[in-house]
Structures are given as structure tokens and as C-alpha cells.
């Protein structure tokens, strides 16, 4: 009986590890205002999350993922995963999850409009002014 419990725990851990390779399910912000919604969709298509996160943390390749120290909390572990194909991120330590817009909004304490302005500017001149 004890061995079957151990095997089940090992199998569950393997399943958890496999989930880490899959992009997270995120709640995408969809503003009610049509202009803001179009701007948000354009930013998500044109601005790569990896380019933004590279301003905050060093990214290393790990299979199909990029991993780094989480820019949202002070922890030496490399618990922050970026999924370039999905343009999303997840931290297994603090639970941060999102896309390029959510990252800038959370990291820089910006509103949606401010984050859109910053990311549109980044797309044009490749610099995030007013960020740390």
C-alpha cells in the first residue's frame, strides 16, 4: 500500500513537471473600448515579451522555455518561465502569470493605457522610457 502511494506521488510530480513545459492559461485583458482593444491586440502581436523581460532579468534557454529569476520577487531561484511561442510567462514561486501587457502593468504599476503607450513606444524605438 505504501509503495503505491509513493508511485502515485512520483507520477503526480512528473505531471506537474510536464505542465511547466506548457504555456499557462491566462486571462487576457479585453477592454470594452474598441480602440483600446485594437491597440492591445496590436501590441500583443508586435511586441515580444522576451524583449521586454530582457530589460529586467537575464533569460537562459531551457528547452522551448526561457528561464530567469522572477522580476516580481526577490528570490535567487530561477522560477520564472517565459513561453516565447505563446508570448506568456509564469512564476512557479509567486504565481505571477500573464502576457506582455500584464507584465508591464504589474512590473511598472501602470494602467492599461499607460502600458499600451509604453509598449507602442517600445515597438517604435525599442526603449521603455520611464521604467526601471
Question: Overview of this structure, please?
Answer:
- This protein is of the alpha+beta class.
- It has one domain (2-125): Zinc finger, CHC2-typedomain (DNA Primase, Chain A).
- It is 45% helix and 14% strand.
- The protein contains five helices and five strands, in the order αααβββββαα.
- It has helices spanning 2-20, 34-46, 49-53, 100-108, 112-125, and strands spanning 60-62, 65-68, 80-83, 88-91, 97-99.
- The protein has a five-stranded antiparallel sheet.
- β3 (80-83) and β4 form a beta hairpin.
- α2 packs across α5 (112-125) and α4 (100-108) packs across α5.
- The longest helix is centred in the first third of the chain and has 19 residues, at 2-20.
- The termini are far apart.
- Residues 1-19 have low confidence and may be disordered.
Amino acid at each position: 500500500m505504501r509503495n503505491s502511494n509513493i508511485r502515485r506521488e512520483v507520477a503526480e510530480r512528473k505531471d506537474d513537471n510536464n505542465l511547466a513545459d506548457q504555456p499557462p492559461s491566462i486571462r487576457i485583458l479585453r477592454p470594452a473600448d474598441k480602440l483600446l482593444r485594437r491597440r492591445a491586440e496590436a501590441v500583443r502581436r508586435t511586441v515580444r515579451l522576451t524583449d521586454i523581460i530582457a530589460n529586467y532579468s537575464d533569460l537562459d534557454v531551457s528547452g522551448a522555455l526561457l528561464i530567469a529569476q522572477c522580476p516580481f520577487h526577490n528570490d535567487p531561484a530561477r522560477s520564472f518561465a517565459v513561453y516565447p511561442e505563446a508570448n506568456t510567462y509564469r512564476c512557479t514561486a509567486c504565481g505571477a502569470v500573464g502576457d506582455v501587457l500584464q507584465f508591464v502593468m504589474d512590473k511598472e504599476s501602470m494602467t492599461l493605457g499607460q502600458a499600451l503607450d509604453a509598449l507602442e513606444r517600445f515597438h517604435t524605438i525599442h526603449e521603455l522610457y520611464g521604467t526601471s
